[in-house]
Specification:
By secondary structure, this protein is of the alpha/beta class. It has 15 helices and 21 strands. Helices cover about 25% and strands about 25% of the residues. The two termini are about 25 Å apart.
Length: about 500
């Protein structure tokens, strides 16, 4: 069922059992888990079904620290959310990503990789992925041409990625959500405030507003905030009339530990003879490929973060403009960059042999409490303080990049297959500066991080905000560490896990 919140009476009271705020990958995945149940689900979307500049402006904010993309371009504010321009890259986190690592400050999750495995498998269906198989041998058995570089897998292994078409949630799931009798989708229902009970131990209601001048109240038994990492933190911080520091922020953790993936060209791989390396090449329409990853054993030995290296033929890579220089505030409107990239890739499509490849890194950012989201004095058109993102890196990221390519280079030398040449910015081990082309993957994570101890995080192992009985956060904002893979598969799995937990909780309350 769909209701346009601009067209109902002002100051309407909307009531249900479950209230989901946000309709991106997390919000829609959560709603899908409640289809055909006896519970009334309220799904609140701030925008409509298409891009609108006025809606997108609500995401505008300030950026300080490391150079970053305009905030209003990094997330889409309409039904389907940022799946409207994602590229579909999916791979699960490694077991080491969930562990406390003594060389990575603030690392460690209250759950393990095996806790997510059944939910990863279920998330594959939402994202239109293939079988839940990430063992390179499985794919090589299907295609003998997927030959591997001759690495010792105790040092460097082939980490498999699978690729969603990519699934546009707003397109694929619109009819399912709108036609569901127990799902009540409200568009143009921007949540501007959250109200708790007198003791601030449970949420009573949320306030929604829109540009038609309408304001409504939504009440439910359980609330799930699924607005993306920056907006999740922003909403908690802005809901400060009862808790001066913001809801869930008694230990000043809301908004902290913002993480991105550093995505940056780092080195060149020169082979002794040309090779096709089909296993490592990617193009639009390809279902899977491998990237080079470092074993847990060597991550521990070299005390480095988790990261992967992808291979692009050097003659093609040299024609690519750095992402940080391409992605502007206007790009979100047209998806021009993504569409242009697809067309360019189709023209370049040719799995032929090459001798030289660019090594492009995707490496996790170390959890850093000073990399954070705070509120500005300026307010948006609906009266909510805008967000400021301070993106701050540490020396560990650059140490990790150097070490990753030292390990890969050693393996190339041992096998006499080729050599690795580091880019200039990685040559000096005492230089922690970053080049102008340093960019991120638009992968916002961490601002309501998961931890058993309320002093170390915002939500518990079930994504419930510490100290508030019925308030949950969904999406990558719950990540304690970023790992190397793109976040969508894991955030979808984590959301399905949260849905199962809530179903049990609701059953027990009856």
């Amino acid at each position: 069922m769909h209701i346009d919140a601009r067209n109902i009476d002002n100051n309407s009271l909307i009531e249900g059992d479950i209230c989901i705020v946000g309709s991106g990958a997390a919000g829609i995945s959560m709603a899908l888990e409640w289809l055909n149940t006896p519970y009334k689900v309220i799904l609140l979307e701030g925008g409509g079904f298409e891009y609108e500049s006025r809606m997108q402006d609500l995401y505008k904010g300030k950026v300080t620290g490391q150079r970053y993309y305009p905030l209003e371009s990094a997330r889409l504010h309409y039904f389907g959310g940022t799946t409207g321009h994602w590229a579909g890259f999916c791979s699960p986190f490694d077991p080491v990503d969930f562990k406390e690592r003594d060389w990575v400050p603030h690392s460690g999750w209250p759950i393990k990789r095996e806790d997510l495995d059944p939910y990863y498998a279920r998330a594959h269906k939402n994202l239109d992925l293939g079988p839940y198989e990430y063992d390179v041998k499985y794919w090589q058995d299907k295609d003998p041409e997927l030959t591997s570089l001759p690495f010792n897998d105790k040092a460097v292994f082939n980490k498999i990625w699978q690729f969603s078409p990519p699934t546009r949630f707003g397109t694929k799931y619109r009819d399912t959500i709108v036609k569901a009798p127990n799902i009540h989708l409200y568009t143009y229902a921007n949540v501007t405030d959250i109200t708790a009970n007198e003791s601030v131990t449970a949420i009573k209601e949320v306030t929604v507003k829109n540009f038609a001048g309408k304001q409504h109240t939504v009440r439910a038994k359980q609330f799930i905030i699924a607005c993306c990492s920056i907006q999740n933190a922003r909403l908690l911080l802005a809901s400060n009339k009862q808790a001066p520091k913001g809801l869930g922020n008694q230990n000043d953790n809301v908004g902290r530990y913002f993480m991105e993936h550093l995505e940056i060209k780092s080195a060149e791989l020169w082979l002794t003879k040309p090779q096709e390396l089909k296993l490592y090449q990617w193009d639009w329409g390809v279902k899977h490929r491998a990237e080079l990853a470092i074993s847990e054993e060597l991550q521990r030995k070299y005390r480095i973060l988790n990261g992967t290296a992808s291979l692009t033929p050097l003659e093609i890579a040299k024609t690519h403009t750095p992402m940080i220089d391409l992605w502007s505030a206007d790009t979100a409107k047209t998806n021009a960059f993504m569409h242009a990239d697809q067309e360019k890739a189709k023209k370049e499509k040719s799995f032929k042999s090459y001798k030289a490849f660019e090594l492009f890194t995707r490496v996790e950012q170390a959890p850093n409490p000073d990399s954070r989201v705070t509120l500005e004095n300026e307010k948006d058109a609906l009266g909510v303080p805008r967000a400021t993102l301070h993106w701050e890196l540490t020396p560990l990221e650059k140490h990790s990049l150097r070490s990753i390519y030292k390990i890969i280079g050693e393996q190339m030398g041992i096998s006499a297959t080729g050599r690795v040449r580091l880019m200039d910015y990685l040559q000096d081990e005492n230089d922690n500066a970053w080049p102008s082309f340093t960019g991120g993957g638009w992968h916002h994570m961490g601002t309501t991080r998961m931890a058993d101890d309320p002093k170390k995080g915002v939500v518990d192992a079930n994504c419930k905000v510490h100290g508030i009985a019925n308030l949950y956060m969904a999406g990558a904002s719950c990540y304690a560490t970023a790992a190397a893979p793109n976040p969508t598969l894991t955030l979808t799995a984590l959301t399905i896990r949260l849905a199962d937990h809530l179903k049990e909780k609701v059953k027990q309350s009856v």
